[in-house]
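Following up on my earlier thread - several people asked me to post the actual chain instead of describing it. Fair enough. Here it is, all 161 residues.
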Amino acid sequence: MDIQDLGSIGELVGGIAVVASVIYLAIQIRHGISGYQSNAVLQATHHFSILQLEVAKSDSLLSAWIKAEQQQPLDDLEQRRVINVVSSYFIAFENLFTQVQTKVMPPIAYDARRPIIASFLSFTGVYTWWTTLGKHQFPPEFVADVDQCIEDFNISPSEDT
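Reply from S.P.:
Thanks for posting it. Predicted structure:
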């Protein structure tokens, strides 16, 4: 075996090593993406859990929330409490929407929460907040989807609250 044969064997081994390195890196990237997606799901779930816990822990907030659900009139403080919680929920919904649009999360993660968006918008005060102030705080794509929720779920809040 001469030096040229050894050089050819070295090139072959080097080529195999490059292919193996690329495969290894692809596997590592896939694991990294999977971990990132899992973390995104965890953070979104955590945000919703914290919101629900905050409502449950506060008697005054829970009372205002129940009144809003039942379309009962709210005083100014109760209205502010409910709108602040709803605004926080909408920030979480918008985050999910964006995660789905960027393919970090599967569409089911957001689609499963669209009925919740619709249920919030059925509160007259929330609907009024959305149409007058809320929709101006979010990206146009998300606003269009929320407006589509209003249409899809036939939202037309009562005039009582």
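The first helix runs from residue 3 to 57. That should answer part of your original question.
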